[in-house]
Design goal:
The structure holds three protein chains of three kinds.
Chain A: H1 2-15, H2 41-55, H3 64-68, H4 72-82
Helix pairs in contact in A: 1-4
Chain B: E1 5-13, H1 20-29, E2 35-36, E3 49-51, H2 57-64, H3 73-88, E4 99-104, H4 110-115, H5 119-122, H6 135-145, E5 152-156, H7 162-175, E6 181-188, H8 192-200, E7 221-222, E8 224-231, H9 233-238, E9 245-254, H10 267-280, E10 289-291, H11 298-312, E11 318-320, H12 323-326, H13 333-347, E12 349-350, E13 372-373, E14 378-384, E15 389-396
Chain C: E1 6-14, E2 32-33, H1 49-52, H2 57-73, E3 80-84, H3 90-102, H4 110-115, H5 120-129, E4 134-138, H6 144-157, E5 163-170, H7 174-182, E6 191-192, E7 209-216, E8 225-235, H8 238-251, E9 261-264, H9 274-280, E10 289-291, H10 293-296, H11 303-316, E11 335-342, E12 345-354
Helix pairs in contact in C: 2-5
Chain lengths: 84, 399, 355
């Protein structure tokens, strides 16, 4: 699980082009959106593609993403439970 | 008193008709143009509903007397629509007055650019399309087809509000005496580029779009070309021309909220509507019908609905979205809907907002769901786009 | 009563070091190639990292040039933002198409699609500035910028707006360069920019840049010039050009010989520079002729570079030697005409007067 979390942090930084953030700076329970990492709705769409491409998980409704992408913890838990 | 600008001709081609008359017939008989995708091969064909113009490029080229694969679909559709508009306005000598052409497009020649992207490296067979990727090239091709030379010809691309802005600029050019007449509107063809692009934004519906419905799932893309002829009062009186309706008001504002989404309370939309009413010099209560942008995305309809409530308060005029007929024709949407607005004024009808069942939970706004006959003197038409671009046009029976 | 239209500030990013407005072509960057890329300013000084991460090159260049123009005009906001761009942020649209084709329409992401909308520069500046005013984007080849100027002039002269930010932007993209080499719109063989205007070969050297200006109907301390008149013609046959220009100038109450100089759009394309050459030996024979595309490269909105240059000439009173095309003496010009066309189409005329 901690491997997956580290992997997610690295992927998010790369996919979303977060140039001046390092994986160490993202805590597992930091909010990814709003006050935390400051991601927005376009980033959420990028993350939905990442779930599909890298973990074989398809989301039909972007609203489903809100809960899943709350933090690295919630993302890792969702992926572990639903991975194809 | 603000003088309106005369509309003397209209021409269009869309999924529900190859000309204005066919479009009107479909509107009043409730015939949608939305179906499974036919002309474009895409892996999304089973989950994508679109509003395609039934004619193939070959059909369009035959009608226009052009050889095969000469032009991309955007100028092909555009030439058809412009010619119809010029016919209706009775314009035979295009250079007789200071005439301009202002077109809106988002994709331009993207259909060919994506089709031959790698092919260009292999053979010279399709190199005639390389320069067609320039959005302005489609407008230039239309100008050439109608013999418009030595003139003001330009192209506007403000996403889904492009044609509204073309009409607005044209009206301003006539009012300020820069031009005597101007052909305004837009043309956009379907492409894999837009189908996939809107898919990444997750705002495409996999079934028929349902504007202002609680359970709306997104939009259907469409394609079309639609152009109107605007002429100065001087030409109209000199030639005793029949005026179809007037462009009375226009407003352009930016939502300055988000790259693709509209603000929660529709600030940009409110500003655009208010500016248009001010230019027209009329109070909101004088609007008889609103042709809404109504794309059926969760975001647009909520934002636009709230904006309409803010502008019209407790006296909401009858409103509907015609996107369930034509799909969302992107740059052309406002051109298509400008013509529908004029037809509404000419025939005193309000078109039904097809597919509506359940009012949205956020407010009590219910669009017209049946064809309705009513004296129509003033129509307000909204168009909003990416980049926060919000535009409103007002059309009237009397100048 | 029509109001006067002033150019109150300038901002530019180009293949020359134009982003520093305290200089005026002090050092010339020479290039050898078929396409040239902008000299990058330090974008981080202008764009917060969170915003920069999704920005295409055209947006980044425009953030710098538009902010510089706003700062010089002493403004926080404007009544309208009008941008001309031939191809928009073409780099991202090309990448989106490539991803689409290479991955069989799977796993596409929205960012590139959003950036590829032509109006993304005007939208992004409005978003950054919180400008809810009029917002337009013109995309008509080499009159994209002139259409924007025209629109701004119309609003300012009619007093519908007081301050308008007008811009021009285009970016270099490899696929575009290669495909346009196929059809010889871009040169097949690399040339030295210094020699490009006498290259004697077909096609142009492709460049990029972003040029922004605040236009206003109020004159102020920073004002550079007055926009007297403009003309835009989609086509002109070779024998119509000269007469059209003469008529345009005379309609403004001056004759050709009253002009202190003309800035011509020569781009080194053997086939299409003949129009400039003919004018240079007839209509413009006795007035100073200036050129610039050997410094800027050619692109749809390269005339934005000429507009920037004319205003720099007015302000500094200097005409760098490298801009001169003939030997007619030029000294502190007050009235300049800009003439441009591309491949014989989309002719534009802009008449400026020093303030």
């Amino acid at each position: 699980m901690s491997d997956l979390k580290q992997e997610l942090k690295e992927k998010i930084i790369e996919q979303l082009n977060l140039e001046d953030v390092t994986a160490d700076e993202i805590a597992d329970n930091d909010p990814l959106f709003g006050d935390g990492l400051g991601l927005d709705s376009i980033d959420a769409l990028e993350l939905i593609v990442m779930l599909d491409k890298d973990y074989g998980i398809k989301l039909a409704d972007p609203k489903e993403g809100r809960k899943i992408f709350e933090s690295i913890d919630t993302m890792a838990a969702y992926i572990s439970a639903n991975k194809a | 008193m603000n003088q309106g600008v005369a509309i003397t001709g209209m021409g269009m081609i869309s999924a529900i008709g190859n000309n204005v008359a066919e479009n009107y017939a479909s509107l009043i008989s409730g015939k949608t143009g939305i179906s499974k995708i036919r002309h474009i091969r895409t892996v999304h064909e089973n989950e994508t509903m679109v509003a395609e113009v039934p004619m193939t490029n070959g059909d369009l080229e035959t009608v226009l007397g052009l050889g095969p694969d000469t032009l991309s679909r955007t100028p092909l559709l555009g030439i058809i629509a412009v010619k119809e508009a010029l016919d209706q306005a009775g314009i035979k000598d295009i250079l007789a007055y200071r005439t301009g052409l202002i077109s809106g497009t988002t994709v331009g020649g993207m259909d060919k650019a994506e089709q031959y992207f790698y092919d260009y490296y292999e053979s010279d067979a399709h190199w005639n399309h390389i320069n067609g990727l320039h959005a302005g090239d489609s407008t230039q091709k239309i100008a050439e087809a109608i013999g418009l030379s030595k003139s003001f010809v330009t192209t506007i691309s403000t996403a889904c509000s492009s044609a509204a802005n073309a009409i607005m600029l044209g009206a301003r050019m006539i009012k300020s005496g820069e031009l005597d007449r101007v052909i305004v509107g837009g043309s956009d063809s379907l492409s894999k580029f837009t189908i996939n692009g809107f898919k990444t934004l997750m705002i495409l519906s996999d079934t028929y779009n349902t504007p202002f419905d609680e359970n709306r799932k997104g939009l259907n893309l469409g394609e079309a070309a639609a152009f109107l002829i605007l002429e100065s009062d001087e030409i109209v009186s000199k030639q005793n021309k029949k005026v179809l309706a007037y462009v009375k008001g226009y407003g352009n504002a930016n939502d300055a909220f988000h790259q693709t989404a509209s603000s929660e309370h529709g600030d940009g939309a409110v500003l655009a509507m208010e500016k248009a009413l001010k230019v027209a010099g009329i109070p909101p209560s004088q609007v008889d019908y609103i042709n809404a942008h109504g794309t059926a995305t969760p975001n647009n309809d909520l934002s636009e609905g709230r904006a309409i409530l803010r502008v019209f308060k407790d006296k909401i005029p009858e409103f509907s979205s015609t996107k369930p007929f034509t799909g969302h024709t992107l740059a052309v949407a406002a051109g298509v809907e400008a013509i529908y607005s004029v037809l509404s004024i000419q025939n005193n009808v309000i078109y039904p907002n097809l597919n509506f069942k359940t009012p949205m939970s956020e407010f009590n706004l219910v669009p017209e769901t049946q064809l309705k006959n009513k004296e129509i003197n003033t129509v307000l038409s909204n168009s909003f786009g990416f980049g926060g671009n919000c535009s409103t046009l007002i059309f009237t029976k009397e100048g | 009563m029509k109001k006067e239209v002033y150019i109150n500030s300038i901002g530019s990013v180009s293949v020359q070091k134009t982003f520093n407005n305290s200089e005026f072509l002090n050092e010339i960057v020479d290039y050898e190639g078929i396409s040239v890329k902008a000299v990058d300013p330090n974008y981080k000084e202008y764009i917060p990292p969170a915003a920069a991460r999704r920005m295409a090159k055209g947006i980044k260049m425009s953030a710098v040039s538009s902010q510089n123009a706003m700062k010089e005009a002493g403004l926080e906001n404007v009544d309208a933002i009008i941008v001309g761009t031939g191809l928009g942020c073409l780099g991202d649209s090309e990448k989106f198409v490539r991803d689409l084709l290479d991955n069989d329409e799977q796993y596409l992401t929205p960012t590139k699609f959003i950036q590829s909308s032509h109006n993304t520069v005007a939208g992004s500046i409005a978003l950054d500035m919180g400008c809810k005013g009029y917002n337009f984007t013109y995309v008509h080849s080499n009159i994209s910028f002139e259409s924007s100027l025209w629109d701004a002039k119309l609003q300012l002269a009619n007093n519908e707006a007081e301050n308008i930010l007008v811009g021009a932007v285009d970016e270099v993209v490899d696929h575009h360069v290669i495909t346009h080499q196929f059809i010889e719109h871009i040169k097949k063989e690399p040339v030295s920019m210094r020699d490009v205007l006498n290259s004697g070969t077909k096609g142009i050297v492709f460049g990029e840049g972003s040029h922004f200006f605040v236009l206003s109907n109020k004159r102020q301390q920073s004002t550079y010039s007055k926009l007297l008149d403009m003309g835009i013609y989609n086509t002109l046959s070779n024998d119509e050009v000269s007469e059209t220009i003469r008529h345009f100038v005379e309609k403004n109450g001056v004759s050709i010989k009253d002009l202190d100089g003309v800035i011509l759009g020569n781009n080194g394309d053997l086939e299409h520079d003949t129009i400039y050459h003919e004018l240079g030996t007839s209509l413009f024979l006795e007035i100073p002729q200036l050129v610039y595309k050997h410094l800027s490269g050619e692109y749809d909105t390269a005339s934005g570079f000429a507009f920037w240059m004319a205003n720099k000439i007015f302000k500094t009173g200097k005409v760098p030697e490298i801009l001169r095309w003939n030997n007619v003496q030029i000294d502190r010009p007050k009235r300049l005409l800009l003439y441009n066309q591309y491949r014989g189409k989309n002719h534009s005329l802009v008449l400026l007067e020093k303030c």
